[in-house]
From TrEMBL:
GO function term, MF aspect, one: glutathione transferase activity
GO BP terms: glutathione metabolic process; L-phenylalanine catabolic process
Protein known as: Glutathione S-transferase
Coiled-coil region(s): none
Length: 202
């Protein structure tokens, strides 16, 4: 398998962590989708990463689709419950974490891809309110539990840590560590795992 992605993307990081936890072999192909010479649309018409290229020519895109498929390839380190409420709970955590990244990335793009005179303060505030509300919801749902769901690592924890790690990387002014020490405790614990150490955004 080949994974097209960047070292800064939190969505790519989520896939890379899942592949490491599942002990799956793959080749990482670095791609800057913002570069004029990018060829990402040859693989993904949406022009986004991550993009997974299978040996038989099948192409998968969207991190949520990719990680769900990867979790079926081997029983090692099962990350998504097979069915029922537990599965829905993990997927809701993933949706919330992805939503934080979606909103924060829109803010970053507004600030880096548009001229200052064209930037909308109201738009930025709207997106940042989603980030703030979601962090609060995550903290309240986690409480003092050691993991987001159940008693072992799941895709929920990976997704949350990828969102928090990207905020620390791109939005250091958001002091989620002080505001939500339980999230910081979870993040620090997960950051000791080799899969997280090897995928720190840069």
């Amino acid at each position: 398998m080949k994974l097209i992605g960047s070292l800064a993307s939190p969505y790519v990081r989520k896939v890379r962590i899942v592949m490491a936890e599942k002990k799956l072999d793959y080749a990482l192909i670095l791609e800057n989708v913002w570069a004029p010479e990018t060829t990402i649309q040859e693989s993904n018409p949406l022009g986004k990463v991550p993009c997974l290229l299978m040996e038989d020519g099948l192409v998968m895109y969207d991190s949520r689709v990719i990680v769900e498929y990867l979790d079926t390839l081997t029983p090692v380190g099962k990350l998504i419950p097979a069915n029922g409420r537990e599965r829905a709970e993990v997927k809701c955590w993933e949706a919330l974490a992805d939503g934080i990244m979606d909103a924060a990335i829109l803010v970053r793009l507004e600030k880096t891809q548009r001229a200052e005179a064209q930037q909308s303060d109201a738009w930025i505030a709207r997106q940042m309110s989603k980030v703030s509300a979601s962090l609060k919801s995550m903290s309240e749902s986690l409480g003092e539990s050691p993991f987001c769901t159940g008693n072992h690592l799941t895709l929920a924890d990976i997704s949350v840590a990828c969102a928090l790690g990207w905020l620390a990387f791109r939005f250091p002014e958001i002091d989620w560590r002080t505001d939500y020490p339980n999230l910081a405790k979870l993040f620090d614990k997960l950051s000791e795992r080799p899969s997280f150490k090897d995928t720190v955004p840069e």
